Each structure stands twice: as C-alpha cells, then as structure tokens.
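Now for one record:
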Amino acid sequence: MNHARSSHANESDVTADAPEEGEPQRAGIQSVEVGFELLKALSEVPGALMLRDLAAAAGMSAAKAHRYLVSFQRMGLIVQDPLSNRYDLGPAALRLGLATLSRIDAVKMARERIPALLQETGHTLAIAVWGNQGPTMVHWAEAPQAVPVTLRLGDVMPLLTSATGRCFAAFMPHEGQDGQRIPPMIREELARLNRLPSTGLPMEDVPLTPAQVDAMLEDTRRHGMGRVVHSMVAGVGGFCAPVFDAQGRLTLGLVVLGSLASLDTRWEGQPAQALRRCADQISADIGHRAG
C-alpha cells in the first residue's frame, strides 16, 4: 500500500512538471529556478554569507533557503564553514564555471552581435584582437552607406593613431609577455610620427611627446574606450571599446568607424554609447565583473 502511494506521488510530481497539451515547451521546474537564486546571490558577492543574509539576498525565508542549501551541499554546489557557519560556492560550482570558461569563444560571441549593432549604429564595425605584431583586425562588417576605408582583415593597427591601438595600449597591462611589448612599440611609433612631414591634420589628436601619449592614454581610460578623429585616415573617426574576460584581461576590441560627416564622435554620442553597451554585455557574458 505504501509502495502504491509512493509510486502515485512520484507520478504526480512528474506530471506536474511536464507541460500540458498546448502549453509552451519552455515550461520548467519552478523549484530549480527558485533555488538558483541562492547560487546567483553567492556569485554576486565577494565572500561567504550567513544563512539569514543569503536568504534575504535570494528573496526567501531562512527556513526555505536552508532546505535548498542542504541539497546543494550534497551536490557540492555549496559548502558551509563549520566554524563561522557561513555558506559559499562549492567545488561543483567551480567545476561548472571552469567548464563554461573553457568553452567561451569571445570573438564568436562578438561576431554574433555585429548585425544588430550594425543596424543600431549605421556605421562600419570591426573586431580586433592582440596578435603577434599588435592589435589585429579579425572581423569586418561594412555598413551599406559607409565611406570605404582601406583596411583589411589581418591589418595591424598603430597604437597611437588608431582607436583600436589606443584601446589596447590603455587597457592591456604593460606586464606579461604581450604587455611588455607595448612601451617599446609606443616609443618606436612616437619616433616615427615625429619624423613624418606635416599632414595638415589637427595635431591635437596626434600625440608627439611622451607626456602627450600619457595624457591620451589617461583620457582613453577615463572614458572607457579609445577614440580618434582624423588621426589615422583624413576625414575618418572611430571608437574602440574593450571586452574583458573573467580575469579582467583585455580579450578583444569592438570597433566602430565612419566618415566625420556622419559619425558622431562625441563620447556621449549614440555610436560610442551603443558600442560601449555591446562591449560591456559581451564582457559580462564571458564572466567579467565591472568595478
């Protein structure tokens, strides 16, 4: 008799979770979604939490949270410190996170967002990564009404006179194998710029001294992206917004550029803001936490 009741109860549980006829197939298990709020709450704080604080952050009672936490502990998703009684993410959560990170392809994710961003900005877009010689274009999408720009896939961008180069020079740490190359590359480019004859372009956008380079890089960091007006190609301006990974490392640069006759080159302008939102979203999607 007891076995019959147990079987009937299990059948009821399955039926309750299965979608009814005509119900959208997206129907899920509400208790899983509720329990996930506890994991989400722990992922958004820098350390372990007491039961009452964790429950409050997840929007549930302490008694309800405790029931979920018991199951999560058995699964290794949550651990509890025996001395402080605080809860934190467990080894199973770490394994899930590492597995996710290993499968992330930031360039692929950025490419998937290009069509919508192209429609939003109406200007040519590109993706750049750090290559053997410096910031390198790896994807290019030209807007229908865009002024042609003589750039190709595989082109390496200068650090001082391109929005892409300024972004990488400003946000890539100047240590490590790649970062250590940036200061000598800047010195070499600076010397080359000083040897060039005057181009007639507004020179305030072209740094010609180490102090001007420092000021330009600081301005780039302050605004959160690289920008050029005229610097690389006459009559063309652009922005490059950084995308960071879960460790805070610069992964790629998202670029918008266009003719100065149509591209709003203000920091607060629509192209810059759309680019920033897209880059920030990609960063968040690959695990970066701003601030």
Remarks:
- Residues 1-25 have pLDDT under 50 and may be disordered.
- The radius of gyration is 26 Å.
